């Protein structure tokens, strides 16, 4: 195959596999005045701990200005790694600070995993549907991405056996807690059964948990990685509980794999910004998250309830959905014959935006699905947005009959 070219440059084959995020492209549209955006998976800026960050910034620059502004260790700021290790041990995932790699957002953790674990053509297992950002992160490494069939709790253990060549898979990528895009939660029994099947097949696990702290009724079960730490990578993030602009996440890796992830990290960016790491540690070291996150949950739960009520009021009997018990998203199945991609321009013209669900499928995209985010919109605007969406959906349904 001839390599693609641009004036003066010949692009690498992997560059062909890089595509813009449909979500980022939709967000550009939502900047138009008057659009009610139920599209972006952005945390609510109303939850950002601005005063705590301001105070921590002053303290870091007062007490350790030169250290904070200098190059730092690639592994991450020691006290922050200690905090992450203690946090994970409290959740049942036994690890030491020496297994914690601080990353530039958990998205970098996905890229590092792909760089270290994926060869061209190697099988990678994902949920149906799965996180679009993971598909983007893995794509340049040219995997053979294989979907595992599932239900309202995620992949079914027996479906793993139906995937051709599953024993050769480099890993199964999972978001078990309030998944993006579906909002679903994997229960305890399913976790036990899935781990047993992964053990039987000898398939490693890549567990991604950006939303696990955002539960509304009850906390999720212990991480899957806690049940097989020697063959699991665990990704965490501070974006959803503090602020995404800090770009801070972490990987908990088995000791044997950690050095290669560290080398990949060094080649990518030397280290995650040391100032940000010291800042976050200063904010959270005294138990701040135990006081702050419940307030975030309460805010998001009220918005979840508002969206559920609006969907029932305006799309009841027309569309299907499951109300999430945490996280940031509703997953909606539209009536037969209604294509969410085709519907989006009509919805935007009417004043509301969403994310079509087809982009979240590695294989066989479902055109009738869409994702709605409820955390950046007030209950009043949620009501108005869903009313507009329902009107557009019903018009499209009538046109398809």
How would you sum up this structure, described in words?
- This protein is of the alpha/beta class.
- It has two domains: 8-48 and 290-400, Alpha-Beta Complex (Aspartate Aminotransferase, domain 1), CATH 3.90.1150.10; 64-288, Aspartate Aminotransferase, domain 2 (3-Layer(aba) Sandwich).
- It has helices at residues 22-29, 50-63, 65-69, 78-90, 106-117, 132-138, 157-160, 188-201, 258-269, 274-284, 288-315, 340-350, 379-400, and strands at residues 5-6, 9-10, 36-37, 100-103, 123-126, 144-147, 150-151, 154-155, 172-174, 205-208, 232-237, 249-252, 320-321, 329-333, 352-353, 355-356, 369-373.
- The strands form five sheets. The protein has a seven-stranded mixed beta sheet, sandwiched between helices. The chain has a four-stranded antiparallel beta sheet with strand order 13-14-17-16.
- Helix 2 (50-63) packs across helix 10 (274-284) and helix 12 (340-350) packs across helix 13.
- It starts with a strand and ends with a helix.
- The mean pLDDT is 95.
Topology:
Layout: E1 5-6, E2 9-10, H1 22-29, E3 36-37, H2 50-63, H3 65-69, H4 78-90, E4 100-103, H5 106-117, E5 123-126, H6 132-138, E6 144-147, E7 150-151, E8 154-155, H7 157-160, E9 172-174, H8 188-201, E10 205-208, E11 232-237, E12 249-252, H9 258-269, H10 274-284, H11 288-315, E13 320-321, E14 329-333, H12 340-350, E15 352-353, E16 355-356, E17 369-373, H13 379-400
Parallel strand pairs: 3-15, 5-6, 5-9, 9-10, 10-11
Antiparallel strand pairs: 1-2, 4-12, 7-8, 11-12, 13-14, 14-17, 16-17
Helix pairs in contact: 2-10, 5-6, 5-9, 11-13, 12-13
């Amino acid at each position: 195959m001839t390599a693609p070219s641009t004036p003066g440059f010949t692009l690498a084959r992997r560059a062909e596999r890089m595509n813009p995020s449909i979500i980022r492209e939709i967000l550009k549209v939502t900047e138009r005045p008057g659009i009610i955006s139920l599209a972006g998976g952005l945390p609510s800026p109303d939850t950002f701990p601005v005063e705590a960050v301001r105070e921590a910034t002053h303290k870091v620059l007062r007490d350790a200005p030169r250290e904070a502004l200098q190059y730092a260790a690639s592994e991450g700021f020691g006290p922050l790694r200690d905090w992450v290790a203690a946090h994970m041990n409290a959740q049942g995932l036994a690890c030491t600070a020496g297994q914690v790699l601080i990353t530039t957002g958990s998205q970098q953790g996905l890229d590092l995993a792909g760089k270290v674990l994926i060869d061209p053509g190697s099988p990678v297992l994902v949920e149906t549907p799965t996180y679009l950002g993971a598909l983007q992160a893995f794509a340049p490494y040219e995997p053979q991405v294989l979907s595992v069939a599932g239900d309202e709790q995620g992949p079914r253990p027996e479906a793993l056996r139906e995937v051709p060549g599953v024993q050769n898979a480099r890993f199964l990528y999972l978001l078990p807690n309030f998944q993006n895009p579906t909002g679903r939660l994997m229960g305890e029994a399913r976790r036990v059964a899935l781990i047993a099947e992964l053990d039987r097949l000898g398939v490693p696990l890549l567990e991604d948990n950006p939303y696990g702290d955002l539960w509304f009724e009850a906390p999720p079960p212990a991480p899957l990685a806690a049940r097989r730490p020697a063959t699991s990578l665990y990704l965490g993030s501070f974006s959803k509980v503090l602020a995404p602009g800090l770009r801070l996440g972490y990987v908990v890796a088995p000791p044997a794999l950690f050095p290669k992830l560290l080398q990949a990290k060094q080649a990518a960016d030397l280290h995650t910004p040391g100032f940000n790491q010291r800042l976050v540690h200063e904010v959270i070291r005294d138990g701040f998250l135990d006081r702050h996150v419940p307030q975030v949950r309460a805010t998001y739960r009220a918005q979840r309830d508002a969206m559920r009520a609006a969907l029932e009021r305006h799309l009841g009997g027309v569309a299907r959905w499951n109300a999430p018990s945490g996280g940031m998203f509703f997953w909606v199945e539209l009536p037969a014959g209604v294509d969410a991609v085709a519907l989006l321009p009509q919805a935007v013209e009417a004043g509301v935006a969403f994310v079509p669900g087809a982009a979240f499928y590695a294989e066989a995209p479902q055109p009738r699905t869409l994702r709605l985010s409820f955390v950046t919109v007030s209950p009043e605007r949620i009501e108005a947005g869903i009313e507009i969406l329902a009107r557009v959906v019903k018009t499209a349904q009538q046109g398809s009959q």
